[in-house]
Write a structure and sequence with these properties.
- There is one protein chain.
- The protein is built from six helices and three strands; from the N terminus they run αβαααβααβ.
- The protein has 121 residues and is α+β, with helices and mostly antiparallel strands.
- Strands 1-3-2 form a three-stranded antiparallel β-sheet.
- Helix 1 crosses helix 4.
Length: 121
């Protein structure tokens, strides 16, 4: 994801904007069942070719990657669940300690604006 975002930043003109709709739900149950699997299982050929492979980046991780790629982010719409749709003890270990908001946010619309490129003198 980061290499893609960096490339997108390289292609953006200084005053450009881009709008993105991001769905953080799994696409099988509309919940977060995709967070149950270990990284080893999720990245296996079986899952990758099954048609169930979906993004597992969480909102805080995505914001960090946008920033690292050189974008300022403005969230213009946020869709949320009232409660986390899966208990933490059913999540793979890599997700259990993430902030609660990472599991309550089910979708976003975000605007990305390229940060000014600092030129060395």
């Amino acid at each position: 994801f980061l290499p893609l975002m960096k490339r997108m930043r390289d292609l953006c003109k200084e005053n450009s904007i881009s709008l993105h709709s991001i769905d953080f739900r799994d696409h099988l149950s509309g919940g977060l069942q995709n967070l149950r699997f270990s990284e080893k299982v999720w990245e296996s050929r079986l899952i990758q070719t099954s048609g169930f492979y979906t993004n597992r980046l969480r909102p805080s991780q995505m914001l960090k990657l946008f920033d690292e790629a050189g974008f300022d982010t403005q969230i213009i719409f946020e869709d949320r669940w009232d409660i986390i749709p899966i208990s933490r003890n059913k999540m793979a270990e890599i997700f259990r300690n993430l902030p609660t908001d990472d599991f309550l946010i089910s979708g976003w619309e975000v605007i990305l604006r390229p940060k000014p490129i600092c030129k060395e003198t």
